[in-house]
Recover the amino acids of this structure.
């Protein structure tokens, strides 16, 4: 037998023995883990037997109890179906609950309560609605349960008389409670909203109410996991074009001056048109009078008896009149007639 073949056989045997040892060690560890798991104390937790959505009434057929490690029971969970349904009146889901998901106290109403926004609000929080449209509301892609930033756009009059526009981030990471009159977080299809209801503190509610009359509010949708605030700063027109505030003010002043000049020119044109219309009416009145005079028939002449008159011969001599010393000259400037009194040249 060749030496290489003998070496390969020996190595194969060594690796085989090593594999068997490793498998035995892994099986022993699995047996130990299973034994430890069997020794853990168990408890029960009530979960949803079927998917629940906002407003669904809880009943025994929609709930079930499952085994749960005693040391890992979620806060607010119920151990038995009887416990969760206890009390006078039914309970309703305040948010979507998936099948086999633990039903927590924070996700359902109290006995006899309705699934309303007041039941969803956190302690000390208020619900405030703001008006939006298809653009300001992120094209309808904001759903109940999302978090948004609220932006305020304002235009104010500066000391120099020019308008200045700017945008501030008013509030950050605000929870959306409802879109129009829908508070179901399981809603999936986007809709163009007219109003968005958000959850804010009392002071933030005052800010929103004041900002609604001071400028235009718009929403910026945040990432689902981004709940922390960030440093923001005011954005003005100079940030868009790179111009300084003085440049923006100068440009606005020039635009205002041009607008005033255009308005003055339009007023001059209107006055000229009015004068032309007046002249046209005066000419029309003169033409009407001439026509009326031309239509009048002269009275027929009555022949009288011939009378004998004495014939007197008179000598008529024509005397050239003295020309006036001054003359009046009319000059049209555009459509305006101007007259000048000038001395006559001899």
């Amino acid at each position: 037998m060749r030496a290489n073949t003998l070496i390969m056989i020996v190595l194969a045997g060594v690796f085989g023995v090593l594999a068997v040892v490793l498998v035995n060690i892994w099986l022993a560890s699995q047996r130990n883990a299973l034994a430890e798991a069997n020794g853990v104390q168990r408890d029960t937790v009530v979960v949803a037997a079927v998917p629940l959505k906002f407003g669904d009434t809880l009943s025994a057929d929609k709930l079930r109890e499952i085994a749960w490690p005693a040391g890992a029971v979620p806060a607010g969970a119920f151990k038995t179906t009887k416990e969760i349904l206890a009390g006078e009146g039914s309970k309703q889901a305040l948010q979507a609950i998936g099948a086999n998901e633990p039903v927590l106290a924070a996700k359902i109403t109290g006995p006899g309560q309705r699934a309303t926004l007041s039941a969803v609000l956190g302690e000390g929080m208020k619900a405030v609605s703001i008006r939006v449209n298809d653009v300001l509301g992120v094209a309808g892609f904001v759903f109940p349960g999302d978090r948004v930033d609220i932006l305020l756009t304002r235009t104010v009059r500066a000391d120099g008389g020019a308008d200045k526009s700017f945008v501030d981030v008013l509030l950050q990471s605000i929870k959306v409670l409802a879109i129009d009159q829908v508070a179901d977080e399981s809603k999936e299809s986007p809709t163009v909203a007219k109003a968005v209801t958000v959850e804010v503190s009392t002071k933030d509610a005052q800010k929103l109410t004041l900002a609604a009359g001071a400028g235009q509010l718009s929403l910026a949708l945040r990432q689902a996991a981004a709940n922390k605030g960030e440093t923001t700063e005011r954005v003005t027109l100079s940030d868009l074009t790179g111009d300084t505030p003085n440049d923006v003010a100068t440009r606005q002043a020039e635009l205002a001056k041009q607008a005033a000049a255009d308005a003055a020119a339009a007023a001059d044109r209107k006055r000229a048109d009015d004068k032309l219309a007046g002249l046209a009416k005066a000419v029309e009145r003169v033409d009407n009078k001439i026509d009326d005079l031309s239509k009048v028939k002269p009275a027929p002449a009555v022949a009288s008896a011939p009378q004998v008159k004495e014939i007197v011969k008179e000598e008529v001599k024509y005397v050239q009149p003295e020309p006036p010393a001054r003359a009046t000259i009319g000059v049209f400037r555009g459509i305006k007639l101007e007259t000048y009194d000038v001395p006559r040249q001899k």
In short: Residues 122-241 form one domain. Strands lie at 42-48, 63-69, 126-131, 147-157, 163-179, 195-200, 216-221, 235-236, 326-333, 336-343.
